[in-house]
Every structure is written in structure tokens, then in C-alpha cells.
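Lecture 7 notes: from sequence to structure.
We start with the chain below.
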Amino acid sequence: MGRTELLKWIRQDGSNIVDRFLPLEARAELDGVIHDGRHEVDADAYLMFVSVRALLRKDGMASYDSDREAGQIMALLNG
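Predicted C-alpha cells for the same chain:
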């Protein structure tokens, strides 16, 4: 799936992407960061980022590349 298609899907049905692709440990990691209190976190953005990253990895993208691409997608969503 290309970046444009993925952005369109996220904009139309982002909650479904989170529901389908959110890694099991993601909520626990988010809770740890929030309870730590040293960082401000947009919980929805974090959950979307890790879900998009998981989707990209599921489609065969390497870990480093999926991190970078998910970051770029999030920047486009927030731009």
C-alpha cells in the first residue's frame, strides 16, 4: 500500500487501523511513559504511530524503514 492510499485510509477510518494493528504491548508502554511523568505524550498520536508502524512491518517493511515511514505519515497527518 502506498503512502497516499494509507493517508486516505487513516483520514477516513483511523480508529479501525488502531483497532486492527495496535501491538499488544503498546498500551502498556504508553501507560509507562505517562506515569513516568517526564514526557508529554499525545496518546492518540502515539497509538496511531505504533499501529501504522505495525501495519507497515506486516506488509514486509524493515524495522528502520517502517519507523521512518510511520513518522513521515504522522507528520503529513499533522501538517
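Points to note: The chain has a mean pLDDT of 92. Residues 3-21 form the longest helix (19 residues).
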